[in-house]
Amino acid sequence: MTNDVVFLHGGTAGGWMWDRQVAELPDRTTFAPDIPGYLTRRAEEWTSFDAVTDRLAAMIADRTTGAVDVVGLSMGGIVSLHLAQRHPQLVASVFATGVSVLPYTRGMRVGNAATLALWNRRFYWAGVARTMGLDGDGAKEFIEQSPPLTRAGARAQLREVEPGGVTRLTEISAPVMALVGEQESQYFHRSLREIRTQIPGAEVGLAPGMHHGWSGEDPRLFNRILRSWLDARARHPELLPAR
Predict the structure, then answer these.
(1) How many CB atoms lie within 10 A of CB 194?
(2) pLDDT score, position 233
(3) Category of 102 on φ-ψ map: left (φ > 0), alpha (ψ -120 to 50) or beta
(4) pLDDT value of residue 243
(5) Strand 68-73 versus strand 5-8 pairing type
(6) What stretches in the chain show pLDDT beneath 70?
(7) How far apart are CA 126 and CA 206, in angstroms?
(8) DSSP class of 119
(9) Which of 60, 49, 66 lies closest to 159, judged by CA?
(10) Please, which residues have CB within 8 angstroms of residue 39's CB and are 6 or more apart in sequence?
(11) Edge-to-edge strand order for the sheet containing 5-8?
């Protein structure tokens, strides 16, 4: 028996970002919802990671009959780990990449303040579209739908993330694979080492040559590594050891 798979998106995207992963899992039941507060669920105000995670848990329990494999990137990775900690009965495993678990550096906080100042400006989201590799109609649709979350929601999210420690990692019992792109900032590499320390038995590794949003940067690589985990809880040979 194979588990259903739930994909949780990053903080500037929506469930659509997983289209190229969902397409490669025709043998699985998959869900890639907009996280509460985002896009089709903008009406559900983002209040806290606890509240959002509990709403997702209710959705999973309503749509499935057993535990699920949860896949998350960036903010979605935080939610994935939080889900495993708060609702262990629903989570068969976690596959998370680019997760923040440590306090943000001063430079990151300054950058976040600048981002919030530009949050409702179209040119900012046009730049985000370029960094995500979107062009043509895909970029146009993304910009028209942005921002995916209200500025108040983004501010509330950052208030929890910036100090670190959103999730009590030592309470997670599900199998975990935590990754970062090899080319991500050292902050994310340090966070990965913290996950390895706090979750005994967690598999950790580096996606070779990749940056933060590598599910879109190289979806074939992402899908190969993910498939090894989903099918056999195995570490794919293309992964590099964590530093």
Answers:
(1) 17
(2) 97
(3) beta
(4) 83
(5) parallel
(6) 1
(7) 29
(8) T
(9) 49
(10) 14, 15, 145, 148
(11) 30-31, 5-8, 68-73, 91-97, 176-181, 203-207
